[in-house]
Structure formats: structure tokens, C-alpha cells
Amino acid sequence: MKKRLFFLALAFVSINFLSAQVVADFEDGTTGPLTLHVQGCGDYDNDAIHPVDETFMVIDNPDASGLNTSSKVLKFIRRGTDNGGMPWGGFWANIDPAIDVTVNKYAHVLVWKPAISPLKFKLEGSTTLETASLNVQAATNEWVDIVFDFTTLTGPYAVMSLMPDFEDPYTTAADTEIFIDNILFNDDPTPFVVPTLVAVKFSVNMSYQTTLGVFDPNTDYMDVAGNFNGWSGDDYHLTLESDGIYSITVDGLAVDSVLLFKFRINGDWNTSEFPSGGPNRTYTVVEGTNEILVWYNDEEPVFGGVLADFENDTWGVLTPHVMGCGDFDNDAIHPVSETFMIIDNPDASGINTTSKVLKFIRRGTDNGGMAWGGFWASCDPAVNATDNKYIHVMVWKPMISPLKFKMEGDPTLEIESMNAQTETEGWQDIVFDFSSLTGDYGVVAFMPDFVDPLATAADVDMYIDNIQITNSPNPISGIWNNKYDNVISLYPNPCNTSVTIDLTKDMNSVVISNLMGQKVLSMENVQKGTVNINVSFLNQGLYFITLTDSNNKTSSAKMMKN
After folding, report:
1. Of the given ranges (35-49, 417-431, 434-448, 537-551), which has the lowest mean pLDDT?
2. Are the beta carbons of 395 and 383 closer than 8 angstroms?
3. pLDDT tens digit sequence for 304-355
4. For the chain, percent of residues with pLDDT exceeding 90
5. Which of 323, 355, 507, 518 is deepest in the core (most CB within 10 A)?
6. Angle, alpha carbons 133-135-136 (nearest 5°)
7. Which residues are CB-contacts of 20 (< 8 A; sequence separation ≥ 6)?
8. Rounded distance, CA 210 to CA 295, Å?
9. What three-state secondary structure class fits 253?
10. Given this model, what pLDDT does residue 482 score?
11. What is the C-alpha separation between 26 and 416, in angstroms, rounded?
């Protein structure tokens, strides 16, 4: 679902008003604290002959666009030389209360003019200063912010003058209409500009809340309420996208603006995230792609665990023993380290770019090798198969052969892999289905080359990594290989709050998955160019970014989140 916002430009600019002293914005149909007097307009300077409202009048904004979408503005009929117009044509005004320029040193005025000309602003008081604008008027027939520097002044000033068309000598014969709005003082000399507006996709994963019975997808709905929609999510209902993820895309949000928001069930603050005054979510809008995906209330299920990833030069929760390797099974003769050793990854590519892996010298028949050659290991803590049913193991083998994994307990189950090995001399994720088991298992075994009978005489080197139990039956797939080296660039990696992908071709999808193979972020129809992805909501750890092109070819890379 998409929502479009048309008021965000002004809302973004108004952020700068928070620390400003607004002199007049004319929204109530008056000039506010200003008591205007006409100047530089011939007989129109004399309000006994021509009341001020013959020259200055508050009207509906004739061009509510760009930098100024407010309702009311000040119209100035700038008198030409035929009516006695002078360079200093404009107004002077008493200000009550006075302007204090001790902190806020810069006057800002929005102007709409049909011609480019100099502008001047004057403050009268203990020290009087008349100054030309810091920035040159750069556009006609549209709203621009003009800034005047009063950094040399301090204290209160009760009289000001604005001369928005200071051509000297003044030669325009006919009267001209000029429009003025949002006169304010702040401490920033930077002119306001129309912000870059982009779309932001808000997504929330409700699958765990469904499991808990908090959310019923058949009867409940989701919305998002925040400072970008007046904290009302009535028209911001999310649509079910996939796998319990609800999303809405909101257009027209300003780059660099800070969004505050919460997701809600059934539009009810009592069932919102972090209820009873809990913190809002925050997100700073960036140029390019903005994708937000979170678990509702930051509550997510525990997805399995890593038995061993070898990154710290250990076997993790496993205490290994050699099996099916003849005399090498006897660690009194041959220590385990003669058959299994943790080494630097010899092929840090494809789906596995980690630093460390397990090397297995698979003994051939000349050394007593058997079909079940591999390892068995005690597990502390035990592997629990109640919720997580699938063992994943990454392997690198020089030949294709069957693989088996065994869980020993009550009952014991030894099975072949769900997916066949298809890669040689490259990393592949192999999955084993233990969905028939439940409870704790304190012993496991892995046999990565179960050819029965084994006929290979010589020893063979194989590599193993990332042994884990998850609730996903899907193998991690795709290879980030040479054919994509000139297509994809990923940085920074490791990352903290965002990651950038540079694409030189369009992608059907960009997906980030966790180690359990579960999708945590998905983007569709991603155009080539720079894609900035917010990952601040992700927990620390390892993730996979998978890209699918228009030919349905995929590639993956690891991303480390600090």
C-alpha cells in the first residue's frame, strides 16, 4: 500500500522554526506584532490619504507550492515611478514585542517576486543597521528564502524595515505585485530550500505476535502513526506482504527529517508498540531507498542456535571424536587434530566468506576409511529439536557424494540431506530434516562423504563450516561470483546503522536474511544505482544479502552487523 503526503515540504522547513523567533506568518489574517507603515511609495506613504491596506494586504497564498504552502501571505503593491516609487519602497514597522537579536542573528523572509532585484532589511535601535541580503535572489515567480545578517547587533529592536526591491535608481514605471511571508529570526544563515522528498517503506513482522495469540490476521489490522501523519494512522493501514510481514509505503517524506512513529494493532494506542508512554521509534530519512522492517514491540522468537562456526578457533558447543577413519579414530594414537583442524578459509567466496573453517582429512581406504567417515560429538548444552528442526552445514568438497547427519537420543535418527550436493570446489549449504524429533539431544554425528562402499583409496581434503539448527528448511543459496564483480558493490561491511549497495543493473529483488534463512528485509524491483538500506533495527550478527536479477539469477554476500 502507498500513501502520498503533500505537506511535508513545509513541515520539514518548520523544523527549523523550533529554535526561531517568528515575527509574522500572517496565518491569522493579520500582520501579528507588526504595525506597518508604507515607505518609498510616493503619496501612498501618507496613510491619511492612502490607508496602509491599499498597499499591503493579507491574502490567500496565490502560489501555495515549493517552499511555501502556507494559507496566508502578505501582498505588497510595489509602486512604480508613475506613483512616486523609490528604491526603498517597502514598509517600516513597529514591533511589539521587540525582536531580540542576542542569540538569533539572522533574519529570514520568504518572498515571491516577478523580477530579480536586490533586497534590504533594516533594524533601528541603539545601533541601526541596514543590510543587503546574504544570498542573492536566484528565482522569479516562486518562493525563495532571503537571509539578512545582523551578527554585529545584540539586544532588543522595536523597529524594522523591509525593502524587497532595492533598485537604485529605480526605473520601473508601473506598479508591481510582490508577496512576502514567514518573517523570522534564527541562528542559522542557511536559506531554507525545498527538501528532497522520497518514499519510506514501513514494515513490521507480526508472525511472533500471531504465535503468542496477540494478533489475529483474520480479524485484526495494522496501522502506523507518527509525526508524519499527525499521529493518526486511520488512513495508514498496512497490507500483508508475506510471512507475517505487514507494510505500507509513504511517499513525500523529506530527506534528513527525523520520523517518530509506532505500529498499532487495530488503531488502538492501548495495543500499540511500547504502550503506556513507552518510547517512539525513530528513523532519519536518507536519500535513495528507505526500508524499515522491525519485529512488533521488538519481540522476536529465538531461532535455533549455532553449534559451531569455528570463528574463535574452537568447536563451539561440540566436543569432537573421529569416526570411520581407521586408526585415526583412536585419539590415543592419533589426536583429533590430525584429522580435523580449524584453519583460515581456503576459499572465502560464495555463500561463505568467514575467516575460519574446519578442515577434514577424509581418510581413504588405504588408511582404513569407511563410508561413515566424519565425526561424532557430544554437545554442551544439548541440541534442542523441539522448535528448531533443521540442521544446516556448509561444506566444500572436491567431489559430489551423499551426506548424512545423526542425532543420538530418544529416538536416534540418522538421515541423508534434504537437498543434494550440487557444488564441487565451492561452498554449499546442506540441510537435514529432523522434524520428527523433539527434545534435547546430547550427541550428534556428521558424515560428509557417505559413499557405501567407499572406494577412494587416497585421503581427500574437505571443509566444513557454520553448523547450526534453525526452523528453516531452505538452504542458503546463491553465489557472489566473478560475473557480478562489476555489478555489485557493498559497503560498509561490517556496518552499524545502514549499508549501501551500488548496482549497475536492475534487480528483481534484494533480500536480507539471518543465519537461520529467515527473511528480515525484502525490496522488490530495485533500480540500478545507489541503494541505501537502514539496518539499525537488526541485532548484531551475520546476515546474507541475496540479489535476484531480471533473469532470476541470484547472488549472495555476507553482511556483518555491529
Report:
1. 537-551
2. no
3. 577 898 988 999 889 999 999 999 999 999 999 999 999 999 998 877 878 8
4. 65
5. 507
6. 90
7. 104, 108, 184, 185, 186
8. 12
9. strand
10. 31
11. 77
Beta-carbon contacts of 46 under 8 Å, excluding residues fewer than 6 positions away, are: none
Q: What's the CA gap between 511 and 518, in Å, rounded?
A: 10
Q: Which domains are assigned to the chain?
A: 2-186 (2.60.120.430), 197-298 (2.60.40.10), 305-470 (2.60.120.260), 482-561 (2.60.40.1930)
Residue with the larger pLDDT of the pair 34 and 557: 34
DSSP type of residue 390? E
Look at residues 160, 161, 162 and name the one whose alpha carbon lies nearest to residue 113: 162
HEC string of 270-311 equals HHECCCCCCCCEEEECCCCCEEEEEEHHHCCCCCCEEEECCC
d(CA 81, CA 79): 7
Q: Which residues contact 332 (CB under 8 A, 6 or more apart)?
A: none
Spatial separation of the C-alpha atoms in residues 223 and 359, rounded to whole Å: 51
| Single-letter amino acid code for the residue at 433 | D
The predicted-structure confidence for 436-482, as pLDDT tens digits, reads as follows 999 889 999 999 999 999 999 999 999 999 998 877 787 765 433 33
C-alpha cell at 23: 515575527
Q: Residue 463: helix, strand or coil by DSSP? A: strand
Q: Are 111 and 137 in contact (CB under 8 A)?
A: yes
Cell reading at 5: 503526503
pLDDT band at 517; cut points 50, 70, 90: low
Kindly tell me the burial class for residue 235, based on how many C-beta atoms sit within 10 Å of its own C-beta (0-12, 13-18, 19 or more): exposed
Task: Give 264-273 contacts, CB < 8 A, sequence gap 24+.
Answer: 264/222, 264/223, 264/224, 264/225, 264/233, 265/209, 265/214, 265/215, 265/220, 265/221, 265/222, 266/220, 266/221, 267/221, 267/223, 267/225, 267/233, 267/234, 271/214, 272/225, 273/297, 273/298
Look up residue 52 and give its three cell numbers. Answer: 496602509
Label the pairing between strands 2-4 and 245-254: parallel
The total of other beta-carbon atoms located within 10 Å of residue 70's CB is: 19
DSSP 395-411: EE-SS----EEEEESSS
Q: Report helix, strand or coil for 490.
A: strand
